[in-house]
Amino acid sequence: MNALRVSRLSSARVLGARTSARSRRGALLVLAALMIVVMLGMVAFALDLGIVMTARTEAQRAADSAALAAAWELALDSQLQGNHTALHDSMRRRANEFANYHTVGNQEPNPQINSENHVDGDIIIGRLNNPSNLSEPMVFNSILGDNAITVRVRMLGARDTSIPLYFGRVFGIGSTDVTAEATAMFNDNVIGFRTNAVHPTSGLLPFALHVDTWQDLMDGLTTADDWAYDSQTGEVTRGSDGIAEVRLYPGGDSQGDRGGPGHIAPGNFGTVDIGNPNNSARDLLRQIQSGPNQADFSHHGGELILDAGSQTLTLNGDTGVTASMFSAMEKIVGDGRTIMLYNQVTGSGNTAMFTVVGFGGVRVLDYQLTGKNKYILMQPSIVIDPTAVSGNYGQSYFVGQPVRLVR
User: Fold this and answer.
1) Is 160 left (phi over 0), alpha (psi -120 to 50) or beta?
2) Every domain of the chain and the residues it spans
3) What is the pLDDT of residues 207-221, one digit of tens each?
4) Rounded distance between C-alpha atoms, residue 20 and residue 11, angstroms
């Protein structure tokens, strides 16, 4: 009887153990199924997240490329020929073209090209005065001209270009919008120049022109256009290119510097010393041909920069134009360089003192260094100079730092 009872108890225990094992296996299967669902969801979520992050990177790359390419149009002399509508159209086409060299989620971003600027548009062209101020709004139709472009890449459901999702569909979200924005700038807010180890010489010429004469040129009061520059060949020839010319050392004629007290320094007419105040003719020729170097700038504390308070820079004069400059002038015809703009000069010859208030980008077209009618003929030109120093004061025109992204 006891043996039978023991046998029955043993059988019950074995049966219970088997039932418990089956229960545990069932629970594990359910848990494993749940874990697989969760893991698949996590993988799908990670996949969606990766797709979105990749799309954002692609969109930013497209916006950066488009803004940079379009901004370089601002550094072409075509903007000096007065047709700003054509310039803007060219910039918008270039921005769209370079954006579409990229894909975002395997689609062309295709930023929309509008004929006018809109604050909420895809391509906006205007002016920034302080690129370090990220909250500064872009100014349209500035009298100082345009120097920046913003490109927005928008992959939107409203445009049927949103980025498709996988896990999001479980929650009824089949796609997501992705946007990116970039602003590139030709920073022409130049207050001076500073050389460095990478750029040991500057494009600054040891020449100065009265700011009133320059302003006459900007206002269209100086209309002579007898020389033409070919940007494809780099040649200067007789003819018209739509950009007026001005004479340096003009003797006060209608196409050059206006005479009168404080405008022209007798025996000098605009050559200035950069560096040692006792510069030799050899130094002047070197600076004309190759630009002032670090040793020259060391005499001015390492840089030539307008004072932030007075917004001026005082430089003494040199002895003026001489026939010895011929070889140096010959080598820079057609080159873009920078001259200084002054508002007052006292004294004469190498005792003259020039009050410099700004800088202007120019191209040398012709020169006459002998006889009574000496002159150097120039026209405004866009000049890109990596030694240029930017600021928010002074008067600078057409000279700036290389194009770069600022936002």
Assistant:
1) left
2) 27-185, 190-401
3) 988 888 898 888 888
4) 14
